[in-house]
Design brief:
By secondary structure, this protein is mainly beta. It has two domains: 87 residues, Elongation Factor Tu (Ef-tu), domain 3; 94 residues, Beta Barrel (Elongation Factor Tu (Ef-tu), domain 3). 14% of the residues lie in helices and 36% in strands. The strands form three sheets. Strands 8-9-12-11-10-13 form a six-stranded antiparallel beta barrel. Strands 5-2-1-6 form a four-stranded antiparallel sheet. A three-stranded antiparallel sheet has the order 4-3-7, with no helix packed on it. It starts with a strand and ends in a 5-residue tail after the last helix.
Length: 206
């Protein structure tokens, strides 16, 4: 997790400063200008400038977030001190853990239920029907950028559940969620592509 240091208005939206945990931005492979970083499920570009190199935020990750992104994700509700999930992009020659997450948020969905449990802490999320069509039991889904397995689907209620292990609760913001909170949701890209094809082209004789 990282902490929002400052949100400064800009012509296109805001300039977001995020303090990253030790080793994240200055480890063996530093985060460089132009690198992609997933911030609570949203793919953003690290965009430091010479003008902020010597200011009080010189060690922070810096992102330009446009008004479209602020309106369609939970980033618009952030304030100084907010915690966010951070993940660097995977290299093409690296090991892929979890599932492919593009950082392209499909919608902000509502947490409608939380069932605490030691090794089976469950969160129920209500989503629009268009998004639910891409949520598959035992499939993959990203909640605020965290790759998870779908633990259950209730089609009649347009809700799905994810089960969280203690590690996930401890090292991501998902352990801080409450009923009524909004979360960024991205469904599995493969399932999404199949649903799109079937809906758009699957009715023909071929």
């Amino acid at each position: 997790m990282g902490r929002v240091v400052e949100i400064a208005p800009s012509d296109a939206g805001v300039r977001l400063y995020v303090g990253a945990p030790a080793g994240f931005a200055d480890g063996g492979t530093p985060v460089r200008a132009g690198d992609s970083v997933c911030v609570s499920g949203v793919c953003l570009t690290h965009a430091p400038t010479a003008s902020n190199a010597d200011d009080s935020h010189s060690s922070a990750l810096v992102f330009d977030v446009i008004s479209e992104t602020l309106a369609k994700t939970t980033l618009g509700a952030l304030s100084s001190g907010s915690m966010v999930n951070l993940e660097r992009s995977v290299r093409a020659n690296g090991m892929l853990d979890g599932h492919i997450v593009q950082g392209h948020v499909e919608g902000v969905c509502e947490v409608v239920g939380i069932t605490p449990g030691g090794d089976d802490h469950r969160i129920a999320i209500k989503a629009p029907r268009s998004l639910m069509e891409c949520v598959t039991p035992k499939g993959s889904v990203a909640i605020d950028g965290v790759s998870l397995t779908v633990a259950g689907v209730d089609v009649s209620a347009d809700t799905f559940e994810v089960a969280l292990i203690p590690t996930t609760l401890g090292v991501t913001t998902l352990g801080r969620l409450a009923v009524g909170d909004g979360v960024n949701v991205e469904t599995d890209v493969v399932g999404r592509a199949v649903v799109h094809w079937v809906k758009s082209y699957g009715g023909g004789a071929d």
